[in-house]
Amino acid sequence: MALSRQPEFESLEASEIFCPRCKASKPVRSRLLLVLPTGHKYEYLCAECGASVGSKMDNDASDFSLAWAGPAGRATPAARRRLGSGRR
User: Fold this and answer.
1) Is 85:72 a contact under the CB 8 Å cutoff?
2) What integer pLDDT is reported at residue 7 of this predicted model?
3) Angle, alpha carbons 78-83-84 (nearest 5°)
4) Which in 8, 12, 39, 59 has the greatest CB count within 10 A?
5) How does pLDDT run across 5-57, given as a tens digit for each residue?
6) Taking a C-beta distance cutoff of 8 angstroms, is the pair 30, 44 a contact?
7) Alpha carbon separation from 58 to 17, 21, 24, 26, 41 (Å, rounded)
8) DSSP code at position 4
């Protein structure tokens, strides 16, 4: 009988990364860069000097449909223009 293993974690979040500008390992802040159909792209910034020290992609695309639809489930003006159904 095979036992199914549950994942130990879903994702990792960096707390410190080496900063080339500070020349030391420093705490980082994450900033959302893009909401893509395949997931979100985050940038890690040094908490001390603000330099970009890395990035991360997650595979959670659940927010993409919300960002596409806009408030109250209606397409945003930019989305309507891309779809060719905007007011003229």
Assistant:
1) no
2) 74
3) 95
4) 39
5) 777 777 778 899 999 999 999 999 999 998 888 888 999 999 999 999 999 99
6) yes
7) 18, 26, 26, 23, 7
8) P
φ/ψ of 41, rounded to 5, equals: -115, 125
Structure tokens at 70: 């806009």
Considering only the C-alpha atoms of the chain, give the largest distance between any 2 of them, rounded to a whole number of Å: 64
Rounded CA-CA distance 3/23 in Å is: 46
In one-letter notation, the amino acid at residue 57 is: M
pLDDT band at residue 86, thresholds of 50, 70 and 90?
A: very low
Residue 53's nearest CA partner among 32, 86, 81, 27 is 27
**Cα(36)–Cα(38) distance, integer angstroms:** 5
- Measured distance CA(83)–CA(40) in Å, rounded: 23
Residue 31 confidence (pLDDT) = 94
| Nearest-angstrom CA–CA distance, 55 and 18 | 13
Confidence (pLDDT) at 66: 57
